[in-house]
Write a structure and sequence with these properties.
two-stranded antiparallel ribbon
Length: 171
């Protein structure tokens, strides 16, 4: 199973997740994690774990119990990103292996560890995008609502009047 242990997010990403949840845009940190993977990939935004002094004491934990309950959607998103992420001039066969074979070994392989780092980098990048698009420029509650609306509108417009083939061809 891919998501069978606690996930810990630290630094600014933890602070951003707290703000997104506390402002009412998401109910749980897990919901932010799930959506951030998709947003990070869609925006081609990757980030590394924040080690700065500013947020050194910030820590968010997503518990195993929550992850197991949502494992089917998490695994689907993980596998989809592994299939679509065309890193290092990888072949389709390489991407299929990343998505479906590298994590199926009883002992976690080095390849699986690398794949997990790629996935997490998209999650962290997505957290940054959500924060920047919704929270960062919002001084009032009305600003936050407007920002969220504009972000969702932007997402909708990026897919409207486009076939699935058009979208896939861009990847």
């Amino acid at each position: 199973m891919l998501f069978d242990k606690n996930i810990i997010i630290t630094g600014k990403h933890s602070a951003y997740m707290d703000l997104l949840r506390d402002k009412g845009f998401f109910s749980r940190h897990l919901d932010i994690y799930i959506n951030s993977a998709i947003v990070g990939f869609q925006y081609n935004r990757k980030s590394l774990s924040d080690k700065s002094e500013t947020y050194k004491d910030k820590r968010t934990q997503i518990h195993t119990e929550q992850l197991v309950k949502e494992s089917s959607i998490l695994e689907f998103i993980y596998r989809l990103i592994m299939l679509l992420d065309n890193q290092k001039d990888s072949t389709l066969e390489d991407r299929i292996n990343r998505a479906f074979r590298d994590d199926s070994l009883n002992d976690v392989s080095e390849k699986h560890s690398e794949n997990t780092k790629v996935f997490i980098s998209y999650v962290l990048g997505g957290v940054e995008v959500l924060y920047e698009k919704i929270i960062e420029k919002g001084a009032t509650e009305q600003d936050l609502m407007k920002n969220a609306y504009e972000f969702m509108k932007e997402q909708n417009l990026s897919f409207i009047n486009r076939s699935a083939d058009d979208i896939l061809n861009e990847l």
